[in-house]
Protein backbone atom coordinates (compact mmCIF):
# COMPACT_ATOMS: atom_id res chain seq x y z
CA UNK A 1 0.00 0.00 0.00
CA UNK A 2 1.21 3.48 -0.75
CA UNK A 3 2.47 6.18 1.57
CA UNK A 4 -0.18 8.35 3.17
CA UNK A 5 0.38 12.06 2.64
CA UNK A 6 -1.30 15.25 3.81
CA UNK A 7 -3.16 15.16 0.48
CA UNK A 8 -4.61 11.75 1.41
CA UNK A 9 -6.05 13.37 4.57
CA UNK A 10 -7.78 16.08 2.53
CA UNK A 11 -9.13 13.50 0.05
CA UNK A 12 -10.55 11.44 2.88
CA UNK A 13 -12.52 14.43 4.11
CA UNK A 14 -13.88 15.04 0.61
CA UNK A 15 -14.92 11.38 0.33
CA UNK A 16 -16.34 11.41 3.89
CA UNK A 17 -14.02 8.53 4.86
CA UNK A 18 -13.03 8.61 8.54
CA UNK A 19 -9.36 9.29 9.31
CA UNK A 20 -7.74 7.23 12.07
CA UNK A 21 -4.66 8.18 14.06
CA UNK A 22 -2.81 6.89 17.11
CA UNK A 23 0.26 8.02 18.95
CA UNK A 24 3.45 5.96 18.86
CA UNK A 25 6.83 6.62 20.37
CA UNK A 26 9.00 3.64 19.48
CA UNK A 27 10.14 1.26 16.75
CA UNK A 28 8.22 -1.92 17.63
CA UNK A 29 4.91 -0.07 17.99
CA UNK A 30 5.41 1.76 14.71
CA UNK A 31 6.29 -1.58 13.06
CA UNK A 32 3.01 -3.12 14.25
CA UNK A 33 1.06 -0.04 13.16
CA UNK A 34 2.71 -0.14 9.74
CA UNK A 35 0.91 -3.45 9.05
CA UNK A 36 -2.53 -1.96 9.83
CA UNK A 37 -4.90 0.32 7.98
CA UNK A 38 -4.35 3.21 10.40
CA UNK A 39 -3.81 6.51 8.56
CA UNK A 40 -1.51 8.49 10.80
CA UNK A 41 1.01 8.23 13.63
CA UNK A 42 1.52 11.10 16.04
CA UNK A 43 4.78 11.15 17.94
CA UNK A 44 2.99 13.08 20.66
CA UNK A 45 4.48 15.00 23.54
CA UNK A 46 2.22 12.77 25.67
CA UNK A 47 5.52 10.87 25.53
CA UNK A 48 6.27 12.78 28.73
CA UNK A 49 3.60 11.01 30.77
CA UNK A 50 2.94 7.69 29.06
CA UNK A 51 6.53 6.69 28.28
CA UNK A 52 8.84 8.75 30.48
CA UNK A 53 6.74 8.92 33.65
CA UNK A 54 6.92 12.71 33.81
CA UNK A 55 4.19 14.83 35.33
CA UNK A 56 3.11 16.85 32.29
CA UNK A 57 4.06 17.75 28.73
CA UNK A 58 6.02 20.86 29.76
CA UNK A 59 8.81 18.49 30.74
CA UNK A 60 9.88 17.25 27.32
CA UNK A 61 11.84 19.19 24.73
CA UNK A 62 13.20 18.80 21.19
CA UNK A 63 15.87 16.33 22.30
CA UNK A 64 13.39 13.79 23.69
CA UNK A 65 10.96 14.29 20.80
CA UNK A 66 13.67 13.76 18.16
CA UNK A 67 14.94 10.66 19.94
CA UNK A 68 11.49 9.05 19.74
CA UNK A 69 10.65 10.40 16.28
CA UNK A 70 13.83 8.72 15.01
CA UNK A 71 12.69 5.36 16.41
CA UNK A 72 9.29 5.66 14.71
CA UNK A 73 10.82 6.78 11.40
CA UNK A 74 13.14 3.73 11.40
CA UNK A 75 10.06 1.49 11.17
CA UNK A 76 9.31 3.12 7.78
CA UNK A 77 5.55 3.14 8.26
CA UNK A 78 3.33 4.02 5.30
CA UNK A 79 1.29 6.09 7.73
CA UNK A 80 1.66 9.86 7.85
CA UNK A 81 4.12 10.68 10.63
CA UNK A 82 3.28 13.83 12.60
CA UNK A 83 5.72 15.11 15.24
CA UNK A 84 4.47 17.18 18.16
CA UNK A 85 6.30 20.46 18.66
CA UNK A 86 7.11 20.45 22.39
CA UNK A 87 6.64 23.29 24.88
CA UNK A 88 8.89 26.30 24.06
CA UNK A 89 9.98 24.94 20.67
CA UNK A 90 7.69 27.27 18.67
CA UNK A 91 6.50 30.08 20.94
CA UNK A 92 9.72 32.05 21.14
CA UNK A 93 11.16 32.38 17.64
CA UNK A 94 12.75 29.06 16.77
CA UNK A 95 9.60 27.55 15.27
CA UNK A 96 10.79 27.14 11.67
CA UNK A 97 14.18 25.83 12.73
CA UNK A 98 12.63 23.25 15.06
CA UNK A 99 9.91 22.23 12.61
CA UNK A 100 12.67 21.88 10.01
CA UNK A 101 14.63 19.61 12.33
CA UNK A 102 11.62 17.33 12.62
CA UNK A 103 11.26 17.29 8.82
CA UNK A 104 14.96 16.48 8.42
CA UNK A 105 14.52 13.58 10.84
CA UNK A 106 11.69 12.15 8.74
CA UNK A 107 8.46 13.68 10.05
CA UNK A 108 5.88 14.24 7.32
CA UNK A 109 4.28 17.07 9.31
CA UNK A 110 4.43 18.81 12.68
CA UNK A 111 1.68 19.63 15.16
CA UNK A 112 1.55 22.62 17.47
CA UNK A 113 -0.93 23.73 20.10
CA UNK A 114 -2.90 26.94 19.66
CA UNK A 115 -5.33 28.76 17.40
CA UNK A 116 -5.54 32.41 16.39
CA UNK A 117 -2.62 33.33 18.67
CA UNK A 118 -0.31 31.05 16.71
CA UNK A 119 -1.49 31.64 13.14
CA UNK A 120 1.68 33.66 12.37
CA UNK A 121 3.87 30.79 13.53
CA UNK A 122 1.86 28.32 11.44
CA UNK A 123 2.23 30.53 8.35
CA UNK A 124 6.01 30.68 8.73
CA UNK A 125 6.38 26.92 9.06
CA UNK A 126 4.04 26.25 6.13
CA UNK A 127 5.98 28.80 4.04
CA UNK A 128 9.12 26.75 4.71
CA UNK A 129 7.35 23.77 3.14
CA UNK A 130 6.49 21.84 6.26
CA UNK A 131 2.86 20.74 6.69
CA UNK A 132 1.33 21.78 10.01
CA UNK A 133 -1.47 20.16 11.98
CA UNK A 134 -3.29 22.47 14.41
CA UNK A 135 -4.43 21.55 17.92
CA UNK A 136 -7.25 23.42 19.64
CA UNK A 137 -9.61 22.94 22.56
CA UNK A 138 -7.79 21.49 25.52
CA UNK A 139 -4.16 22.30 24.78
CA UNK A 140 -2.26 20.45 27.53
CA UNK A 141 0.85 22.67 27.19
CA UNK A 142 -1.38 25.52 28.48
CA UNK A 143 -2.92 23.67 31.42
CA UNK A 144 -1.67 26.30 33.86
CA UNK A 145 -3.50 29.10 32.06
CA UNK A 146 -6.57 26.93 31.38
CA UNK A 147 -6.83 26.02 35.05
CA UNK A 148 -6.19 22.34 34.57
CA UNK A 149 -7.34 19.69 32.12
CA UNK A 150 -10.99 20.41 31.39
CA UNK A 151 -13.59 20.35 28.66
CA UNK A 152 -13.40 23.52 26.58
CA UNK A 153 -16.37 25.45 25.17
CA UNK A 154 -18.72 25.74 28.14
CA UNK A 155 -19.31 29.47 27.72
CA UNK A 156 -20.56 31.24 24.61
CA UNK A 157 -17.31 33.19 24.36
CA UNK A 158 -15.19 30.04 24.62
CA UNK A 159 -17.31 28.42 21.88
CA UNK A 160 -16.93 31.40 19.55
CA UNK A 161 -13.18 31.55 20.25
CA UNK A 162 -12.86 27.89 19.23
CA UNK A 163 -14.54 28.66 15.90
CA UNK A 164 -12.26 31.66 15.35
CA UNK A 165 -9.22 29.53 16.22
CA UNK A 166 -10.20 26.83 13.73
CA UNK A 167 -10.83 29.38 10.97
CA UNK A 168 -7.57 31.23 11.67
CA UNK A 169 -5.63 27.97 11.47
CA UNK A 170 -7.27 26.97 8.20
CA UNK A 171 -6.44 30.38 6.76
CA UNK A 172 -2.86 30.09 8.02
CA UNK A 173 -2.52 26.87 6.03
CA UNK A 174 -2.83 23.88 8.38
CA UNK A 175 -3.73 20.65 6.56
CA UNK A 176 -5.75 19.34 9.49
CA UNK A 177 -6.65 20.21 13.07
CA UNK A 178 -6.88 18.20 16.28
CA UNK A 179 -9.83 19.13 18.50
CA UNK A 180 -9.28 17.90 22.06
CA UNK A 181 -11.80 17.69 24.91
CA UNK A 182 -14.47 19.96 23.42
CA UNK A 183 -18.28 19.58 23.53
CA UNK A 184 -19.37 17.49 20.55
CA UNK A 185 -21.82 20.08 19.19
CA UNK A 186 -18.96 22.58 18.90
CA UNK A 187 -16.66 20.06 17.22
CA UNK A 188 -19.52 19.41 14.78
CA UNK A 189 -19.86 23.14 14.01
CA UNK A 190 -16.11 23.42 13.45
CA UNK A 191 -15.99 20.30 11.26
CA UNK A 192 -18.79 21.62 9.07
CA UNK A 193 -17.22 25.05 8.75
CA UNK A 194 -13.78 23.85 7.60
CA UNK A 195 -12.63 22.29 4.34
CA UNK A 196 -9.65 20.67 6.10
CA UNK A 197 -10.21 17.54 8.23
CA UNK A 198 -10.80 17.69 11.98
CA UNK A 199 -9.23 14.91 14.06
CA UNK A 200 -10.91 14.55 17.41
CA UNK A 201 -10.05 13.23 20.84
CA UNK A 202 -12.77 13.68 23.42
CA UNK A 203 -14.81 15.81 21.01
CA UNK A 204 -17.47 13.39 19.85
CA UNK A 205 -18.37 11.55 16.66
CA UNK A 206 -19.04 14.42 14.25
CA UNK A 207 -15.40 14.90 13.26
CA UNK A 208 -13.55 13.80 10.15
CA UNK A 209 -11.28 11.53 12.16
CA UNK A 210 -10.22 10.30 15.60
CA UNK A 211 -6.96 10.03 17.50
CA UNK A 212 -6.11 8.18 20.72
CA UNK A 213 -3.00 7.78 22.83
CA UNK A 214 -1.93 4.22 22.11
CA UNK A 215 -1.19 3.45 25.78
CA UNK A 216 -4.84 4.26 26.55
CA UNK A 217 -6.09 2.02 23.73
CA UNK A 218 -3.87 -0.82 24.95
CA UNK A 219 -4.79 -0.46 28.62
CA UNK A 220 -1.28 0.55 29.64
CA UNK A 221 -1.90 3.99 31.14
CA UNK A 222 -1.85 4.95 34.80
CA UNK A 223 -4.34 7.73 34.20
CA UNK A 224 -6.96 7.38 31.50
CA UNK A 225 -9.13 10.41 30.57
CA UNK A 226 -12.91 9.86 30.36
CA UNK A 227 -12.87 9.90 26.56
CA UNK A 228 -10.20 7.21 26.10
CA UNK A 229 -11.38 3.68 25.37
CA UNK A 230 -9.17 0.70 26.23
CA UNK A 231 -9.56 -2.01 23.59
CA UNK A 232 -7.43 -4.51 25.50
CA UNK A 233 -5.98 -4.81 29.01
CA UNK A 234 -2.30 -5.21 28.23
CA UNK A 235 -1.32 -4.31 31.78
CA UNK A 236 -3.07 -7.46 32.95
CA UNK A 237 -1.62 -9.58 30.13
CA UNK A 238 1.94 -8.34 30.72
CA UNK A 239 1.83 -8.76 34.48
CA UNK A 240 0.49 -12.32 34.10
CA UNK A 241 3.34 -13.16 31.72
CA UNK A 242 5.91 -11.74 34.15
CA UNK A 243 4.43 -13.66 37.11
CA UNK A 244 4.47 -16.87 35.12
CA UNK A 245 8.12 -16.32 34.16
CA UNK A 246 9.10 -15.66 37.79
CA UNK A 247 7.23 -18.76 38.93
CA UNK A 248 8.79 -21.00 36.24
CA UNK A 249 12.33 -19.84 37.03
CA UNK A 250 11.79 -20.40 40.74
CA UNK A 251 10.34 -23.86 40.12
CA UNK A 252 13.14 -24.79 37.70
CA UNK A 253 10.71 -25.10 34.77
CA UNK A 254 12.41 -22.40 32.74
CA UNK A 255 14.70 -22.74 30.89
CA UNK A 256 13.50 -26.14 29.70
CA UNK A 257 15.39 -28.19 27.08
CA UNK A 258 14.40 -26.26 23.98
CA UNK A 259 15.78 -23.05 25.49
CA UNK A 260 19.43 -24.08 26.05
CA UNK A 261 22.29 -25.94 24.37
CA UNK A 262 24.20 -28.86 25.86
CA UNK A 263 27.68 -29.52 24.52
O1 LIG B 1 0.52 14.30 22.61
C1 LIG B 1 -0.52 13.73 22.27
O2 LIG B 1 -0.71 12.52 22.49
C2 LIG B 1 -1.55 14.51 21.59
C3 LIG B 1 -2.84 13.85 21.27
C4 LIG B 1 -3.63 13.62 22.50
C5 LIG B 1 -3.63 14.58 20.25
O3 LIG B 1 -1.33 15.65 21.32
NA1 LIG C 1 0.47 16.58 22.32
From TrEMBL:
PANTHER family noted in UniProt: 3-METHYL-2-OXOBUTANOATE HYDROXYMETHYLTRANSFERASE (PTHR20881)
GO CC annotation terms, alphabetical: cytoplasm
CDD domains for this protein: KPHMT-like (cd06557)
Biological role: Catalyzes the reversible reaction in which hydroxymethyl group from 5,10-methylenetetrahydrofolate is transferred onto alpha-ketoisovalerate to form ketopantoate.
EC number, as in UniProt: 2.1.2.11
Gene from which this protein is expressed: panB
Keyword terms of this UniProt record: Coenzyme A biosynthesis, Cytoplasm, Magnesium, Metal-binding, Methyltransferase, Transferase
Enzyme class per UniProt: transferase
Organism listed in the record: Acidianus ambivalens (Desulfurolobus ambivalens)
Source domain of life: Archaea
Cofactor(s) recorded in Swiss-Prot or TrEMBL: Mg(2+)
Cofactor details (free text): Binds 1 Mg(2+) ion per subunit.
One GO BP: methylation
Protein name, entry field: 3-methyl-2-oxobutanoate hydroxymethyltransferase
Amino acid sequence: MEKITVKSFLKKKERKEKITMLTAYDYPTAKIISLTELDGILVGDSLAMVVLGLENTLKVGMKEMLHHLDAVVRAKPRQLIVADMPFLSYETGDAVKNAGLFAKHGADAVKLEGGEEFSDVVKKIVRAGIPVMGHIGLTPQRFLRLGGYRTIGKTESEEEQLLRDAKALEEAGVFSVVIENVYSSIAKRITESLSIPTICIGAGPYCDGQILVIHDLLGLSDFKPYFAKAYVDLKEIISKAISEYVREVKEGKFPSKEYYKEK
